[in-house]
Design a protein that fits this description.
The chain is of the alpha+beta class. The chain contains four helices and four strands, in the order αβββαααβ.
């Protein structure tokens, strides 16, 4: 019962992504990709003091990546960077099967809980979050923005 409710919520975000309007001259931006599935994601942030005043998240790819991007846009707006990072940690817990973090209101993101059963899809759901993190970690004013990837770094290091 709960499962089908969550599935509906994911499909609703997929069909009508929230917060996907581009932001003119954003303070932060990054692009990300999940090579495993072919998902792509762009994040733009307009800061309001230390808060995310406006956020735009545009994703192309599977339903899980697009829905997660839409939920991120919906739930992260108005939060400080620290709050957004707490939310990201809670989403990772959920997706990696560690359950719900106490004291964090996940909102619609709760619907992603079932994704934990599909390890291949976990990276799809995490892509928008990795991209947001990259946007914050990139030097401010970086012209082309930063690039995030869900691909694991090659073992043994080395420059690719
Ligand atoms: Zn995907």
């Amino acid at each position: 019962m709960l499962d089908s409710l969550y599935r509906e919520l994911i499909l609703d975000h997929y069909r009508r992504p929230r917060g996907s309007e581009p932001i003119p001259s954003p303070d932060r931006r990054a692009d990300g990709q999940n090579p495993l599935c072919g998902d792509e994601c762009s994040v733009e942030v307009r800061l309001d003091g230390d808060r995310i005043g406006r956020i735009s998240v545009r994703a192309r790819g599977c339903s899980i990546s697009v829905a997660s991007a839409s939920m991120l846009a919906q739930e992260a707006e108005g939060r400080t960077r620290a709050e957004a990072e707490r939310l990201e940690a809670a989403v990772r817990d959920l997706l990696q099967g560690r359950g719900r973090a106490p004291g964090v209101d996940l909102g619609d993101l709760e619907a992603l809980e079932g994704v934990a059963q599909f390890p291949v899809r976990v990276k799809c759901a995490l892509l928008p979050w990795a991209t947001l993190r990259e946007a914050f970690e990139a030097p401010a004013g970086a012209r082309r923005g930063a690039a995030a990837t869900t691909e694991e770094p090659a073992k043994g290091g080395g420059v690719r």
